Every structure is written in structure tokens, then in C-alpha cells.
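User: Could you check the structure of this?
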Amino acid sequence: MTRLLVSVILTSLGALVYGLLLGGVSRVITASIHGRIGPRLTQNFIDLWKLFRKESSIHHGTMFWMAPMFRLTGGIGVLLLVPIIAGNSVLTNMSFSGDLLLVLYFMFFGCLGMALGAGDSGHPYAVVAVSRGLLQMSAYELSFSAAVLVLALGLGTFSIENIVSAQQGGILNWNVFRFPFATAAALITFLPMNMTYPFNIVLAPQEIPIGPPTEYSSRFLSFMFSGRAIFGVAKLILFVNLFFGGAGSWSSLLIKTFLLYMYPLFVSPVFPRFRTEQSVRFLWFVPTSLVAVDLLRVIL
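Assistant: Sure, the predicted C-alpha cells are below.
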């Protein structure tokens, strides 16, 4: 029990540090693309510490204050259900035979919590962001769940650890080569999961001046940033486990997750933002059509 508790604490802290570092890399690269001087690589750590030390005098409803904790809990929950290093008895965390189904439910726990928090904020435009976010979430949730279902049917297991084991023996055994269309669909849904362009319709910074940084402050905002950092790392590890062979060592994990993190970072500055109906129409049609190809291959 003590060993598991230590593993949980170290895994969560490690994911927080790694997520904040990746966020710093994102800000530096984005600034370079824009041709401006950006913040330092460690700026996220400084911001988090400054926010945590502050107090807030703003009083909203109970759900408004609970939303950052929902975000943090959702990120940690997904992280603890995903094996970190394949074959390591400690770093498999709390994974079990049917953990893939639970991960699919848990991934949207934090998003729903933030939606409830925004609805309790009293902001006149909160309902706009909530409706957009939930509508887009339902669209990419369908495609991503279908892609994961194809993997489970093709490999005959809902265990993430078993899915990783089935991909060992060479790069051609990775699911990106076994199920290329389902992988392509999942990578498309990875963009709206991270709220990057062209699917950044929730915050819409050039359209409506809203979003959690506007409403939240002090340590509540620090909890939200921490949850976002941990959840981002959890999603990276999950995608590596499902589609890219998992990680057998720390070096393999860092390389794969870093390369996967670069994908939306370089896609985002290239495309303009979709309108809400464009985003939903695209996510309902393109990824699901790709998944259907691999689904037919599995059935036949």
C-alpha cells in the first residue's frame, strides 16, 4: 500500500513538472513563430507559485470553486489509470483488465466540471462557452471512442497494459500501422482535446474575452493550471500506449510524448479557427469515416 501511495505521489508530481515544462516549450515556440520575444522556459513554474500564494475575495457559487478541483482530479485520475512504463510493476499504477472503459469516462470528468463551474460564474457569456464546449466535446468524444473501440475489437482486450503488450516486437506491430485509419481519426480528435486551432472555439480569444483566466484567480487558477498540465501529460501517455507501442523506458517515453506534443503545436498556427458548426460537422464526418474503414477491416 505504501509503495503504491509513493508511486501515485511521484507520478502526479512528475507529470505536473513535465506538463509545465511542455507548456513553457509551447510558449517559446509560439513566440518564435509569431516573431516576438516570448517568456522564459520556466515562466509557468513562476506563475503557478505566484498564483498559489495569492488569495481571492471573489465569491461565486459552490460549483464555481469546485471546478478547478474537478479539473485536477480528472487529470490525476486518468494519469493513474494509464501504465507509464510497460513491464514496470510500480509504474503500471492502478491499471486493470477493463481500465480502458473507465479512462474513456474519466477523461471528460474535468471538462464537465469546468462547464458546471463556468455556468455558476455569473458571466453573461459563460453559457456561450459552455454550449460550444459541450457540443464540440460530444463530437470528438464519439470519434475517439469509436477509434478506441476498433483497437479493443481488433486486439480482443480492453486492458491498456495488454494493448501495449500486443504492440511489442517491432515498430510494425504498433497500432499506428495495424489500424492506420483509426489512429488518424484519434490524432484529429487530439486537437480539440487540447483546444488548439482550428478547434479552439470554446475560448475564441479574438471573439469573446472570456475563459477561465478571466474568471478565476489566486490558488483556484493555480489548481486549474496544475490540472491542465497533468491532464495534458496523461493524454500524451495514453495516446503513446494506445497507438505508438507504449514506452519501455524513460527515454522512450520522453521522446514519444515530446514528438506527439509537437504535433498540435505546429498544426495550430497554420489553420484558422473553425466556426462552431464547421467544427462539429468536421468532427462528426471526417474522423468517424476514417474509423469506419478500420472497423470494416476488423469485422471482415
